[in-house]
Write a structure and sequence with these properties.
Bound molecules: flavin-adenine dinucleotide
Helix content: 25-40%
CATH architecture of the largest domain: 3-Layer(bba) Sandwich
Radius of gyration: 24 Å
Structural class: alpha+beta
Largest sheet: 8 strands, mixed
Number of domains: 2
Number of helices: 14
CATH superfamily of the largest domain: FAD/NAD(P)-binding domain
Shape: elongated
CATH class of the largest domain: Alpha Beta
């Protein structure tokens, strides 16, 4: 059998590809390495952004794709692939409207202008009530009738490991099935939708130039699509655009490690009472800097992408809980249990030694912070919110690790979503969507809210609705 469309991966981008090509009459084969659909959305926040949606109109929010593009260029400082981003934002509203019409459950009061990343100028940022899983629920409901009528055939536990390439054109895939069987499937359009490489430590470090510290990504994000596309002559873009988040607390320091907590370092949600020092024991940012992008870029300059949040007992008792979803008591229990990356000691010197920080430098950083408060002088880092000095024993430190859950580097691609060679020529028969395009192309050197999930869904929809062609 020669399939009209073969989709490799049933996540945010592969599902819409399959759904919309099936609706247009294609015979679709969807090969999925895991035992379920939805991919990274099963673990992702799933925040989407789209301008000109029906929800915005109903709420009287005037917004356009041009303004969305303008915001992305501003936030990313013009480091995105403008053509791809234009294609994404121009078609994002139709994608979001489709999800809403199909029953997407949005958080009450959304859209908002920001939260996790640098804010947009308009309210165009939408979250599902059950994070990414709210999107998965809709996608599963949308593909079910296509599977039921035989337009889409899904094979689970089936991992594509090779492409069939004839006369420079991609015309099939070789997949390893559940029982060890190796099958070749031939098709007119091969769509790589197998997600990123953020669960593959070797590929992550090779492409991003930093180790994979956190085990935050979907375990099947092994980067297979990159290897497959490169075997057909594809090239990669965005190596210089790596950015980590502003840190999580890891379960241990053997990498990649699971995250066990996240400090609320967003001054708009919780003003900082603590100071942050790097591995040299030195402060590196005004902790109340209102720009999340500025904080993330400051962390990018720090050795090992890590820092320690320092505070004393008076701050611990007076300030709101530092970690999301935790109470004072539950945080205290982590220090009592000597949990990895939580440190407490009776003197600053002992704390620094325990945390592996240079004792003298920590003492100097804390003294400079305290002295400026006492003298009513300007903070050495320019911070203005300084509710209390760090003086009362015991002293505390929580180690934060910058890491990422998505892939920066992406496949070279044109606006028809055909994978290209280094000279820009398209590889016949081969398309790519989703995280395989890399955050570097869609968000540039900064994080732009919703600009991974939304383009993944949108480009999948566009492939299915109009960009793929087949004939029998
Ligand atoms: C923790 C986390 C939070 C995130 N938060 C956001 C957010 O708030 N906003 C945002 O825009 N983006 C966010 N993202 C990113 C976004 O969710 C992903 O980029 C997007 O879902 C990727 O879609 P995809 O279709 O490319 O890949 P996926 O959804 O990962 O789907 C790929 C599928 O391919 C399968 N597969 C892999 N290899 C093979 C193979 N060889 N053969 C067959 N099948 C294969 C996988 O099992 C998977 O089901 C987040 C990601 C994570 C991990």
């Amino acid at each position: 059998m020669n399939w009209d469309v073969i989709v490799v991966g049933g996540g945010a981008s592969g599902l819409p590809t399959a759904i919309f090509s099936a609706r247009r009459g294609a015979k679709v084969l969807l090969l999925e390495a895991s035992d379920t659909l939805g991919g990274s959305l099963n673990v992702a926040q799933g925040q989407l952004s789209a301008a000109g949606t029906k929800v915005q109109k109903a709420k009287g929010i005037a917004d356009t794709p041009a303004e969305h593009l303008e915001d992305i260029l501003r936030i990313s400082k013009n480091t995105v692939d403008r053509d791809l981003v234009t294609l994404a934002v121009n078609n994002a509203a139709e994608t979001f409207d489709w999800l809403m019409d199909a029953g997407f459950e949005m958080v009450d009061g959304h859209p908002v202008n920001g939260r996790a990343h640098e804010p947009y100028s308009k309210l165009r940022y939408y979250w599902g009530v059950d994070y990414g899983r709210s999107i998965v629920k809709v996608l599963k409901a949308q593909i079910a009738p296509e599977i039921a009528r035989g337009a889409v055939t899904v094979k689970f536990h089936t991992r594509v490991k090779d492409l069939v390439i004839e006369d420079g054109a991609v015309c099939g895939v070789v997949a390893h099935g559940p029982d060890g069987a190796v099958d070749t499937f031939r098709g007119q359009n091969i769509v790589l939708a197998s997600g990123g490489y953020a669960a593959n430590p070797q590929m992550f470090e090779a492409l991003n130039g930093v180790p994979l510290f956190g085990a935050l990504a979907y375990p099947y994000s092994q980067g297979d699509g990159y290897t497959l596309a490169r075997s057909a002559g594809a090239h990669l873009r965005g190596h210089d655009k790596y950015l980590s988040n502003f840190g999580v607390v890891l379960a241990g320091n053997t990498y990649p490690a699971k995250s066990v907590g996240r400090a609320n370092t967003y001054p708009e949600q919780r003003m900082p009472w603590e100071i942050y020092v790097n591995s040299a024991g030195v402060r590196f940012i005004a902790e109340d800097n209102p720009s999340v992008d500025a904080r993330e870029h400051a962390l990018l300059e720090q050795p090992g992408l890590r820092y320690w949040i320092l505070f004393d007992d008076a701050i611990f008792r007076a300030a709101p809980p530092l970690l999301y979803d935790e109470t004072q008591a539950s945080i205290a229990a982590k220090f009592d249990a000597k949990q990895a990356n939580f440190f407490r000691a009776d003197t600053l010197a002992a704390l620094a030694a325990q945390a592996g920080l240079p004792v003298a430098a920590v003492a100097e950083s804390v003294a400079a912070y305290n002295d400026a408060i006492r003298a009513g002088a300007a903070d050495p880092m320019g911070r203005t919110y300084r509710p209390a000095p760090i003086v009362t024993a015991p002293f505390y430190a929580i180690r934060q690790q910058g890491t990422s859950s998505t892939s920066t580097v992406g496949l070279g691609i044109n606006t028809e979503l055909k994978v290209t060679r280094p000279d820009g020529s398209p590889i016949r028969g081969l398309y790519a969507v989703g995280e395989l395009l890399g955050s570097g192309q869609l968000m540039g050197s900064s994080f732009c809210g919703g600009m991974m999930g939304t383009p993944a869904l949108t480009f999948g929809r566009l492939l299915g609705q109009s960009l793929l062609h087949w004939g029998r």
